[in-house]
Specification:
Length: about 150
């Protein structure tokens, strides 16, 4: 009887633990709830028209972390793994409390650049933002989680 109680108790403990989805659960909390700070890419998705858009998020390669940084002076920075670094995005503007726009003050000239004149940012939750690169017939979205590392 005592073994039965132990098995039941252990089973309840095991199955009551919360399991988190690494795509939707950040490692830390955004203390200010603002866009200011460091963000790490966790997933992306893309679409192409006339092809059918694929709405599912694809997790990113954790060995090549993409980091973006929004600063208090409205500057926008990123590490060398940022896919759109060739577009020279360096500033952001606030549209409202959850909507922002990233742009370049000196866009590259010639060729097919910039790929996207500006990037729209939506803060879905205090710890999650989504960047949307909208083209005429294609687009990309990237999901970032707030990062507590410096």
């Amino acid at each position: 009887m005592q073994k039965l109680h132990l098995v039941i108790g252990f089973s309840i403990l095991l199955f009551s633990c919360n399991k988190s989805d690494p795509i939707t659960t950040p490692n830390c909390k955004n203390p200010t709830g603002s866009i200011i700070g460091r963000w790490d890419l966790v997933a992306n998705r893309s679409y192409s028209i006339p092809g059918a858009p694929n709405p599912s998020w694809q997790t990113t390669n954790k060995s090549n972390i993409v980091t973006i940084i929004f600063s208090k002076d409205s500057s926008f920075n990123y590490n060398s793994n940022f896919n759109f670094s060739m577009d020279n995005y360096n500033r952001f503007t606030v549209i409202d409390s959850v909507d922002f726009r990233i742009y370049s003050t000196s866009p590259p000239s010639g060729g097919n650049f910039p790929h996207y004149l500006s990037v729209f940012v939506k803060m879905n939750f205090p710890n999650e933002i989504v960047l949307t690169y909208m083209g005429v017939d294609a687009g990309v979205q990237e999901k970032y989680d707030y990062s507590c590392t410096n």
